[in-house]
Amino acid sequence: MFVQVLGDPHPRFAAGNVFSPSGRALLPAATNDEIRAAYVGYYTYFGTYDIDENKRVVTHHVASSLRPQEIGLNYERPYELTEDRLVLRYPVSDDSGGTNTRVIVWRRAESLRR
User: Fold this and answer.
1) How are the residues of the chain apportioned to helix, strand and coil, as percentages rounded to the nearest 5?
2) More confident residue, 113 or 46
3) Which of 25, 30, 27, 26 is nearest to 14 (CA)?
């Protein structure tokens, strides 16, 4: 299982390419604010998953993440599966200490057969 979420619009660096020719080093052309915006605007993790069909819950077992503190965590996500859509709906804390419901919807891709 692999999750990637990219903000829209994705932030850009004013200087254009800010990486070394090898792509391994960040050059000093990017400002701290630009780097922060790029980091906050992107999220990814991967791992394995289990499905409990009776409870209608999928559990993501995080093997690695952009956020190192998540490695080794298990995320239980209630799911709904109808026709070509998979919907995950689960509570998340907000910055003010309250709780919101996050809803993620995936739709099955159409076949690429010719």
Assistant:
1) 10, 45, 40
2) 46
3) 30
For CA atoms 12, 17, 23, 25, the dihedral sign is negative
On the 0-12 / 13-18 / 19+ scale of CB atoms within 10 A, 90 is middle
What confidence category does residue 41 fall into, taking pLDDT thresholds of 50, 70 and 90?
A: confident
Whether 56 maps to a domain, the answer reads: yes
Domain, as residue range, for 21:
2-107
Distance (Å, whole) CA 108 – CA 112 = 12
Q: Which of 107, 112, 45 is nearest to 81 (CA)?
A: 107
Q: What are the two backbone dihedrals, phi and then psi, of residue 38, each rounded to the nearest 5 degrees?
A: -65, -40
Counting the structural domains of the chain, the total is: 1
